[in-house]
Each structure stands twice: as structure tokens, then as C-alpha cells.
């Protein structure tokens, strides 16, 4: 999800710059057809920059081949002034070595991020994500025109220079997934009033006392990603008036921190603007998540891996735009509320709670479901052909460890083609479920512990072409013809 957003924002930023240049162009309509070449100084700077890079896959092979650096890969110039305004160093994704999880950088700086960059004085857009480097140079603060700075997954260490606070036009800042030293202060953030997108995920902010204040000084902040930052808030923050806090935060990821319910009043300030909210792996306690029901524009909500107790609030059933809801690994009890208004929901994970009731019998109303995990609860009720009739899009189903009863005829043909089916401990037996043979795309199948009494030859009749994982343990299967 964050990925799609990122791409969209990148696109937006290009667009913004394009629109700016077009306007500038129109006001100078006398000089229209003059083809503007790139600046010699900037060209030389780019060539020096290339010299400072190890470029394993020759991504910069076009650099130096033609005189006009404006059409080199990853370089964009303002077509009126000829100045380089956008630079994207790497177009390739990181590859991970499967066995060591080591990152394989296709591009890296030989030493530090080099000063030729400074020659590109009109740079507005700089993305060097997944280019390996050592640290962020302090001189970055001199690139005064920067609106977009993306340095995620660069293996950067050292400190985050407070000179970033000099980039007062920044709209987009992504420094996520690096190895910076423990950050002491984020006060420089408050000098970036135009910031809309901030991603510092996987940066150790546990030593900062001002992160919350810094964020609340950014009036236009729209996307905030501080996942895995060691964040905690000891006391309930004072409520901020909209003059001092972001007016319309839409996308928040504060997952994998040590946050408690003391931050909730602040979050509920954004009940009208929030579209995506991710709070998984924190320390939210006791209070049931009632007020989330007031966040009427939510499309995704992830509260998994916390300690929420009590019932799932009925109000969540009103979030008509919700596409993804994850409440797994909490201590929620009682019946699942009526969800028939959640007609767009495609991902629903309620697993590992203490939920009961026969809600499953009404699941046919959720016709957009693609991913359903309700495993390890105390649910009962009958799973019938009628209840599954509408679930044509389902590809992931885990109903393990509940107390469902099945009423599926021998020749039933499901409306879906599953890729993952997990039905551990579901009392499926004694006979082998024939309908499994219709599932041609299945790659992960777990039907262990089901009191099944059949022959291995029946397994052979399954569509095994895509199968990568099979668990049929704890059944009574005989080797037979
Ligand atoms: C200059 O750039 C603008 C916006 O990208 C574009 O619409 C226009 O056609 C360009 N002009 C020339 C002469 O390339
Ligand atoms: C850049 O422009 C030159 C001259 O217009 C052209 O020969 C060359 O193919 C272009 N290179 C790229 C990568 O577009
Ligand atoms: C991954 O790392 C291991 C251990 O360093 C190495 O033996 C292996 O060749 C690497 N895999 C690939 C695909 O290069
Ligand atoms: C690293 O990536 C390059 C090209 O992308 C590839 O040729 C090489 O095998 C990769 N090495 C490892 C260790 O994955
Ligand atoms: C950049 O910011 C630092 C403080 O973070 C300040 O001391 C310095 O004067 C600024 N430089 C410029 C060129 O504005
Ligand atoms: C949303 O928040 C505002 C301000 O905090 C509050 O006045 C309003 O009642 C809330 N809306 C809902 C539906 O709870
Ligand atoms: C569903 O939506 C309708 C109309 O918006 C509303 O009247 C009803 O109370 C909602 N039902 C539930 C269970 O939330
Ligand atoms: C469901 O759980 C709630 C809360 O634990 C309990 O009060 C209720 O009796 C249970 N309902 C059924 C049908 O077991
Ligand atoms: C299937 O879903 C549609 C709306 O999505 C609903 O109107 C219809 O009643 C459902 N069918 C069954 C058998 O429940
Ligand atoms: C579900 O379990 C509860 C409590 O054991 C029981 O009262 C109820 O009749 C069961 N419902 C179904 C549909 O089996
Ligand atoms: C099982 O489902 C069929 C329709 O598919 C229905 O006629 C029958 O009554 C159901 N049996 C039970 C025990 O619910
Ligand atoms: C398994 O099935 C066979 C033949 O259908 C039957 O003779 C046997 O008693 C069954 N075993 C169990 C444990 O149900």
C-alpha cells in the first residue's frame, strides 16, 4: 500500500515540477522554439558524479554518450532554462540474497556522496533510493530548491544532518530503512513547513523527546510513516488545535513501536481525514477500539498485534469505505458485529482472538473478499454452499481452529479459485473433501488434524501443479489404490 502511494507521490512531484516549468514557459512565449541544451557545468558535474559511482548494471550508460545531458537516463532539465531539476540515480529494485538476506545494491558510491551534486543548484527532485552510500553530507542543506528528497534503503549510517532543515521547500522526504545513529532531536523538521510526506521508518527515534512536537508543527503533513522507530509517549499529549497540528493527515503508519492508548486522542483528531491507519505491533491496552468507528473515510485499518480487549465495536461496521481490516492477535471477545455495510472489504483478518458467534453464515454479503483469515477463535455456525456463493474473488482462506460445521455436497463446485487454503483442526472428515480437486491454483494447502479417513490416492487427484506446501498430517490416510 505504501508502495502505491509512494509511486503516486513521485508521479505527483514530477507533475508539479512539470506544471511549474510549463507556466514559466508560457510567460516567455516569445522564445518558444529555442531548444535549450544542458549547462556545461552541470554536465561536467554529472560526469564526475558518475565517476564516483559503482554502477554494476550500467544504468548510467547513456551518461556522456550525447552532448545534451538533459536526455541522459534519470536526468530531467527545465526546458526553458536548461538547468537540471530532477535526478533519479537508480531505477532498479534491491535484490535480497535469499539465504543471508543481504542487500544486493546495483549502484553505490565509491566513497561518500560526492560534492558534484552541489553544482546542480536548481535540483528540485533527487531520488537515490537503493543506492548504497555512507552518510548524508551536510552540504545537502545547500540544495535550496529541493522539493523532493528520497534516500530510502541506502545503507546510510551516521547522523541525520540538521542542515536538512534548510531545505525549506521540501514537500517529500523519505529517509526510511537506513542505519542512522540514534537521533537526538527532530527539531529541524519544524523548519520544513511545506512537508506533505515524511518517512523515517526504521530510524531509532527512541532518544528524541521532541518527535511528537516536530510532527505537530507541520501543517500540511499528509503521509506520516514512522514504523519501527522505538517511539513511545509516556503521557497523554495535550490536544492540538488545527492551527498547530497537521490539518489533514490521511495516511499514518506508526506500527512496531511502543505506543499506548495515550496517543489515541491525537489520532481521533483526524477522524475525517484519515484514509489509512496502521498501528500494529504496539502496546495498546484494554480499551476497545470504539472511536475508530468515527474515522468515516478509512480504507484500511490495521490494529493487529496489540492488547485490545472487549468486543469489536459495532461502529466499525459503518466504515463503508473500508477495504482492509486487520484486528488479528488481540484479545477481542464476543460476536463479530454486523458487517453488511462493509461492502468493499477485500481483506479481513480477525484471527487469534476470542471471537464467537455464527457470523460466518452471513458472509455472502462480503462479495469483494479476497483474503479471509478468522483462524483461532471460538466461532461456530454452518459453512454452506449458500454462504460461500458470493465469494467469487476469494484467494486466501484460513478458518482453522474454530467450531464450524460443514454442509457442502459431494459434487459442490466452489465459486472461487484459492491459492492458499488453511483448514487445520476443522473436523472436515471423515471423507476427503472432493471439492479440493476443483482448486487449480492452490499453492499452499493445510488440512491437517481433520479426522479424515481416506487414501493417499485421493491426494494424488488434487491439482498439484502449483502446490508448494502441503500439510496433511494428523489424519487417518491410507496408502491405497
Ligand atoms: C517543455 O516542457 C513542458 C512541460 O514538460 C512541455 O509541455 C513542453 O512541450 C516542453 N517544450 C519543449 C520545447 O520541449
Ligand atoms: C539524446 O539526444 C540525442 C540528440 O538529440 C540523441 O541522438 C540520443 O539518442 C538521445 N539519447 C537518449 C538516451 O534519448
Ligand atoms: C548468498 O550468500 C551466500 C553466502 O554468502 C553465497 O554463498 C551465495 O552465493 C549468495 N547467493 C547468491 C544468489 O549470490
Ligand atoms: C546482484 O545483482 C546482480 C545484478 O543485479 C546479479 O548479477 C548478481 O548475481 C546479484 N548477486 C547476488 C549475490 O545476489
Ligand atoms: C543551515 O542550517 C544550519 C543550522 O541547521 C545553519 O547554521 C546554517 O547557517 C544554514 N545554512 C544556510 C546556508 O542557510
Ligand atoms: C471528529 O473529530 C472532531 C474534532 O475532534 C469532533 O468534533 C467530531 O465530533 C468527530 N466526529 C465524529 C464522527 O466523531
Ligand atoms: C448501514 O448503513 C445504513 C445506511 O447508511 C445505516 O442506516 C445502517 O445503520 C448501517 N448498518 C450497520 C449495521 O451499521
Ligand atoms: C460470546 O462471548 C461473550 C463474551 O465472552 C459471551 O458473553 C457470550 O455468551 C458468548 N456467546 C456465545 C454464543 O457463546
Ligand atoms: C451477493 O451479494 C450481493 C451484493 O453484493 C447481494 O445483494 C446478494 O444478496 C448476495 N447473494 C447472496 C446469496 O447472499
Ligand atoms: C454456537 O455455540 C453456542 C454456545 O456454545 C451455542 O449456544 C449455539 O447454539 C451455537 N450455534 C450454532 C449455530 O452452532
Ligand atoms: C444443507 O444445505 C442444503 C442446501 O445446499 C440445504 O437444503 C440443507 O437443508 C442443509 N442442511 C443442513 C443440515 O443445514
Ligand atoms: C475408514 O474407512 C474405512 C472404509 O471406508 C472403514 O472401514 C474404517 O472403519 C474407517 N476408519 C475410521 C477410523 O473411521
Automatic annotation (TrEMBL):
Transmembrane segments: none
Sequence ranges assigned to domain Leucine-rich repeat-containing N-terminal plant-type in this UniProt record: 41-78
Signal peptide: 1-24
UniProt KW keywords: Glycoprotein, Leucine-rich repeat, Membrane, Receptor, Repeat, Signal, Transmembrane, Transmembrane helix
InterPro entries reported for this sequence: Leu-rich_rpt, LRR_dom_sf, LRR_N_plant-typ, LRR_R13L4/SHOC2-like, RLP23-like
Membrane topology, from the record: Single-pass type I membrane protein
Compartments, record wording: Membrane
SUPFAM superfamilies: RNI-like
Source organism, top-level taxon: Eukaryota
Cellular component GO terms held in the UniProt record: membrane
Record-annotated Disease resistance R13L4/SHOC-2-like LRR domain positions: 274-474
Protein's recorded name: LRR receptor-like serine/threonine-protein kinase GSO1
Amino acid at each position: 500500500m505504501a508502495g502505491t502511494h509512494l509511486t503516486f507521490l513521485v508521479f505527483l512531484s514530477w507533475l508539479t515540477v512539470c506544471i511549474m516549468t510549463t507556466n514559466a514557459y508560457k510567460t516567455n512565449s516569445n522564445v518558444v522554439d529555442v531548444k535549450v541544451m544542458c549547462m556545461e557545468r552541470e554536465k561536467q558535474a554529472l560526469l564526475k558524479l558518475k565517476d564516483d559511482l559503482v554502477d554494476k548494471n550500467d544504468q548510467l550508460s547513456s551518461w556522456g554518450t550525447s552532448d545534451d545531458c538533459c536526455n541522459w537516463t534519470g536526468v530531467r532539465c527545465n526546458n526553458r532554462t536548461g538547468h537540471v531539476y530532477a535526478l533519479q540515480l537508480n531505477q532498479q529494485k534491491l535484490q535480497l540474497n535469499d539465504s543471508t538476506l543481504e542487500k544486493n545494491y546495483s549502484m553505490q558510491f565509491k566513497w561518500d556522496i560526492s560534492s558534484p551534486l552541489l553544482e546542480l543548484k536548481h535540483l528540485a527532485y533527487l531520488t537515490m533510493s537503493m543506492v548504497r552510500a555512507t552518510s548524508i553530507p551536510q552540504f545537502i542543506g545547500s540544495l535550496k530548491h529541493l522539493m523532493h528528497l528520497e534516500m530510502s534503503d541506502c545503507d546510510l549510517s551516521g547522523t541525520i544532518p540538521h542542515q536538512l532543515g534548510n531545505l525549506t521547500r521540501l514537500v517529500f522526504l523519505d529517509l526510511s530503512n537506513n542505519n542512522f545513529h540514534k537521533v537526538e532531536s527532530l527539531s529541524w523538521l519544524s523548519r520544513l513547513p511545506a512537508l506533505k510526506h515524511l518517512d523515517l521508518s526504521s530510524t531509532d527515534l527512541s532518544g528524541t523527546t521532541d518527535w511528537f512536537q516536530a510532527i505537530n508543527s507541520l501543517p500540511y503533513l499528509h503521509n506520516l510513516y514512522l514504523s519501527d522507530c522505538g517511539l513511545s509517549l509516556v503521557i497523554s499529549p495535550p490536544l492540538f488545535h488545527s492551527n498547530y497540528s497537521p490539518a489533514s493527515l490521511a495516511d499514518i503508519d506508526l506500527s512496531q513501536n511502543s505506543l499506548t492508548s495515550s496517543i489515541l486522542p491525537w489520532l481521533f483528531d483526524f477522524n475525517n481525514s484519515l484514509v489509512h491507519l496502521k498501528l500494529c505491533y504496539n502496546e495498546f491496552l484494554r480499551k476497545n477500539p470504539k472511536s475508530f468507528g468515527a474515522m468515516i473515510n478509512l480504507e484500511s485499518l490495521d490494529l493487529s498485534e496489540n492488547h485490545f480487549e472487549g468486543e469489536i465495536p459495532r461502529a466499525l461496521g459503518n466504515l463503508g469505505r473500508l477495504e482492509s481490516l486487520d484486528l488479528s492477535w488481540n484479545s477481542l471477545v464476543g460476536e463479530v458485529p454486523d458487517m453488511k455495510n462493509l461492502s468493499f472489504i477485500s481483506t479481513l483478518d480477525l484471527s487469534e482472538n476470542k471471537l464467537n458467534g455464527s457470523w460466518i453464515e452471513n458472509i455472502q454479503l462480503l462479495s469483494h473478499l479476497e483474503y479471509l483469515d478468522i483462524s483461532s477463535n471460538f466461532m461456530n455456525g454452518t459453512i454452506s454452499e449458500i454462504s460461500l456463493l458470493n465469494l467469487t474473488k476469494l484467494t486466501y482462506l484460513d478458518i482453522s481452529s474454530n467450531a464450524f460445521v460443514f454442509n457442502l455436497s459431494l459434487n459442490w463446485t466452489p465459486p472461487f479459485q484459492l491459492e492458499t487454503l488453511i483448514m487445520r483442526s476443522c473436523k472436515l472428515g471423515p471423507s476427503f473433501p472432493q471439492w479440493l480437486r476443483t482448486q487449480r491454483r492452490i499453492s499452499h494447502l493445510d488440512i491437517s488434524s481433520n479426522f479424515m479417513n481416506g487414501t493417499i490416492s485421493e491426494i494424488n487427484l488434487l491439482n498439484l501443479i502449483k502446490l508448494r506446501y502441503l500439510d496433511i498430517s494428523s489424519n487417518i490416510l491410507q496408502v491405497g489404490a
